[in-house]
Each structure stands twice: as structure tokens, then as C-alpha cells.
Amino acid sequence: MKKLIECVPNFSEGRDMTIIKQITDEIEKVEGVKLLDVDPGKATNRTVVTFVGEPEAVIEAAFLAITKASGIIDMSKHKGEHPRFGGTDVCPLVPVANVSMEETAEYARKLAERVGRELGIPVYCYENAAFTEERRNLANCRAGEYEGLPKKLEDPHWKPDFGPAKFNPRTGAIAIGARDFLVAYNVNLNTTSTRRANAVAFDIRDKGRPVREGNPITGKIKKDEQGNEIWIPGALKACKAIGWFIEEYGIAQVSINLTNISITPVHEAFEAACKSAQERGLRVTGSELVGLIPLRAMIDAGKYFLRKQNRSVGVSEEEIIKIAVKSLGLDDLKPFVAEDKIIEFKLKDEKKKSLIDMTCKGFANETASESPAPGGGSVSAYIGALGVSLGTMVANLSSHKSGWDERWEEFSNWAEKGQKLKDELLFLVDEDTRSFNKIMDAFGLPKDTHEEKTFRTEAIEEATKYAIEVPFRTMKVAFDTLEIIRAMVEKGNPNSVTDAGVGALCARSAVMGAFLNVKVNAAGLKEKAFVDDILKKGATIESKAKELESLILEEVNKKISK
User: Which residue in 289, 403, 443, 453 has the most C-beta neighbors within 10 A?
Assistant: First the structure.
């Protein structure tokens, strides 16, 4: 499995796209790196760039981008709403797959050392790459911003971690770090007042607001007996927020950084901002994402709002995302394009052919063609997906049935389970064809030398074993769908009982069809113990599936006759 890290550098230029293009061109030069997003802001005069790849390639691309930025961005002329102290202001690395935070921090320090040494830019390491606790917080590293940097660099306490303690008016300084996935998220208000936006920000942010003597705005901050400032914590953990006015939109926003969406998800931040705004006579009109967001954050938000409506959460991923977008008002200022904003969608290989993305007609035509794949295994998985889709449909209809309002959650749970099994079976439609192609690839390996023959034989054996495991997995998943289908026949909307019955027929056929593939592929495997075990388990699943189907159809016919 490849190690993947994400890099999200913020450049202090958001108005001249020719400058931004020169920087992103440097990133795209590096093989193994994919540029995911470029998000410029005119009011902030700042662009957030997101790219992903294997660690060494990512830090090479980051170095080239920082190098280019240092030559074409002049910080002495920069003005913008966002806090900043350098041309490349911050450059965080984020672990994405098969890499630990500790490893990611080491990559960040490696990049920081090179920037300081080769480019002569003062570098502060922050978050998980920080060398001291004080420097973990980006706000501390950037305190005083660009204008305060000359004085800061003279202070031995703020000597850079790498690079010279010398002010370069053109480049400023840079913060390089390693952090968890951060969601940059702005909430839109029906006001132009930065002061009121800040009041909402102070209400919700983790840091909160200081306790002041006399005037709550201009009064001196109170201190405790030890001389420490006294602060009232905000409503949300792992949340940073400030208020600002965005001239481009003509509104004030609460600019939020959610540093750990497992602690405070996006929908909780939105709800907290709505509550605070309402209490202050304001209204939240929508929100916007800056950069990318993980799919799970959108799914969690969509399900949260569906549950608030007492609606089933067992609907398609596309529908859940649509609910999240509309509920959060992510299309308030401009269209929200999921393919451009959700990180997993950006990583999809659009050139890769997928069976499940075909039309029904296209899939049937491909199956009927002279190509040996897709074959019975893929079709079995697809039949199973259709079967559980029928059971899930009955669950959703039941959750919304008039007079059954108090049972919505019961059926929502069944529908949610059905959606999960449906998605797994759809994955297996393509995976079965991929497993067949692996066997073909193995047979195509060279066999001229003894070593090549041995490697080819082992590759064929491994590919064959996988081609058995995939349809066996289809059997198990398809069998699991019968539990949902049976429940819908017994408890669901009686008007849809025949739909559930057809679902049972599909599930049984999926189990039996997949087992045929297990058996034919097992015939070519030399590992006898594995073959005997999987055939025994498969026969048991098939027998139970037939028995369950018979019971379900018996119940269906009873209800029809009534």
C-alpha cells in the first residue's frame, strides 16, 4: 500500500492568477503528485493550494512551490484580511493513508530544514512538527504578522527553527508543520459588521474571549492571582475562529478552522454559529468551504440533518451529500461541486473504466459482448445489489408511511444497513472483473527461465485464490441482505411486500451464482485445505440462502392472499 500525505500550502497572493499558475505549475512538474484544489480569495489576498502524493514526491513539490513563490511574491507590497507573515505563509503536511503522524512530522522537518538552508527563509515548525510546546500553536508562531517580523527575529526566544534569524522583506517567514486534517470553513452572516461577526466567533471558538474590567470590549483583561489572563472558553473544542468582512461578497463571515473534525464536526460548528448569531439578532445565511473536505464529514452532516427531520438516513451517498449541502447552505455564495470539494472524489481516476458507472443498457451490452468479463461473478454481485436495493426501498417507504411516524428510526436503521450492503455488492461487481484480469495478467508473465516459471506459477496461484475469495465474499454479503428483506416482508409497508419478495429471489440467485464462480475457480487451485474449507462454507451459505428464500416467499404469498 502506498503512503500518501496531503500538502496544503497557503500563498500570500489571491488576486493575480498568473502568479498562482506559476506556483502550481511547479507542483504539477513532480511525478507522483496530484494537484487537487486551488482556492484563491480576493479579499484575503491568499490562495490555498491542495495536493497529494507519496511523501518524498510531496515534499519535493512543496519545495519547488515555495522556491517559486519566494521569487514572484513580494511581501513588502502585500495587503489582505487574513493573518500572514510570509509569501508562502504556512505549509502543513497531513497524513492521508498508511503513514503515521510521527512520520509526517519528520517529513515536515526535512522540508523545513531544506527551505531554511537552500532558500535562506526563516522557518518555524508548528503543530506536530514543533520542537517546543509554545510553537505548536500557529498563532504563536505568526504573532505580530509580517509587520512585526523584524523585531521578532531579533528576539533570541523566537529564533527560527531553520534558516537565518534575519528579516527578508521580500519573503518574510514561513511556518511548516504536520497536522490532522483541517477543515477551513466560513459561515455567512446577514451583516456587514466585523465586530458582530467576531462576537459570534468568540462565542464558539475553543479559546473563547477574555474577561475584561469595565467595558466588555475595550476594558483591561482581568488576571488571576498568578498574573494569568482570565478567559471564558467558547462552545466548541478544536475550533479556531475570527470574524471578518468580505468585500467580494459584501457580507461579514465567521472564519473557522476545525482542527479535528472527530471532536467538532462541520455540522456542529454550523449549528453553534446559528445559535450564537440568533441570540445576537443575526442570521446565518449559509456557509462555504475553503479547500477540500473528507467525504465522511459530508456524510455525517447529511445524516445529522436527516435525523433532525425524523427522516431515514438509509439513502444514497449522493442524496446524503445533497442534504448536507442544502442544510449547511454551501451553495449560498457559489455553486458547490462535490467532485471538486470532496477529497475522495478528487482522488478518483476518471480514466479508469468502472462497470457500476455504466447505464443499465451499457452494462447489459458489455456483458453480452465477446469479452469474457464481466461474467457470472460480476452479474451475481449486481443481482445481489438490486435485491438489497428493493429491501432498502421498502424500509425507506415504511419509515415515511403515514401513521407510522413513531417507527421512522426503526426503518431508518434497516435502510442504513441496506445501503451499506448495497455499496459493498456494487464494489464487488468491479472487483470480480478485476480478480479475473489478475489471473489473465499472471498467465501472461514470462516463463523462459526457472526463476520466471516459479514466479509465474506463484502469481497464478495467488491470483486464482483471490478470484475465489471475491465471489465467496459476494455470497456472504448477499446472504446477509436476506435478513433485511425478511424483516421488510414481516414488518414493512404491506403495500410493498412483493418488492421485498423479488429482493429475496435476487439475493438467493446472487448467492448461488457467486458459488458457481467459487467452485469453478477452486478447481484450478493447488492448495487443497483452502479449497475444501471454502467449498464447505460456501455449501452451507447456499443451503441457508435457499431455506430463507423459501420462508420469505411463503410469507409474501400469505400476505398477497390476504
Answer: 289
